[in-house]
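Hi F.,

I've been meaning to write this up properly since the lab meeting, where we talked about keeping a consistent format for the predictions we share between groups. The idea is simple: the sequence comes first, exactly as it goes in, then the structure tokens exactly as they come out, then a line or two of notes. No screenshots and no reformatting. I'm using this chain as the first example so we have something concrete to point to.
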Amino acid sequence: MKRLARDAGLLLLTGALALSATLAWRQWTSTAVTSAEKRLQSHQRLALLAQGSYDNQPLDTPLPRPAAQRPNSRILAAYRAMRAGKPSAIIIVTQTQGYAGPIVLSVAISTDGRLIGSQVIEQQESPKLGARLADPQVHWLEQFSNRQLTDRWALKRDQGDFDQLAGATVTSRAVITALQEALSYFDEQHTVLLGSSAHE
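Output, unedited:
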């Protein structure tokens, strides 16, 4: 009887230790995964800003999302980059509908309303066609750098200022429209986005 009780006690102890180890492992890996996801998100959203152009952690304090959305795109998030207590840029995360599915872009805008740069965060476009917009070797998104709302935001074939991504007219038009609408949103909301320190 004593042996049976001892064996049951050992079994319970072993089970408790195994459960503790499993929970500890889950907690450790969950923290590591969350940390890795945060680093990836930070890289995707802040890579457009020059090193040293901000000294805060913009992603730690997202700005309020707009109640009214754009006609052809949706603002998912906005962040304020600061340098020495003053705004240096606004990062807008926007989503538009491409040819095969949603395209999510990170868009960096300077305090004077110029587009610093844009980067694809997510896309489902056709390989070797629309998906090439995320290819760093194609450089298609670079043509939008330093542009502003008053430029002609359309393809050259539509009397605009921009080249088309070869073989991907729908994708090209969707991205151009999303970038224009991000600049339009900045133009309409710049007081809120830049905050009171922008005017001090």
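Notes:
The radius of gyration is 24 Å.
DSSP finds two helices and four strands in the chain.

If this format works for you, I'll send the rest the same way.

G.
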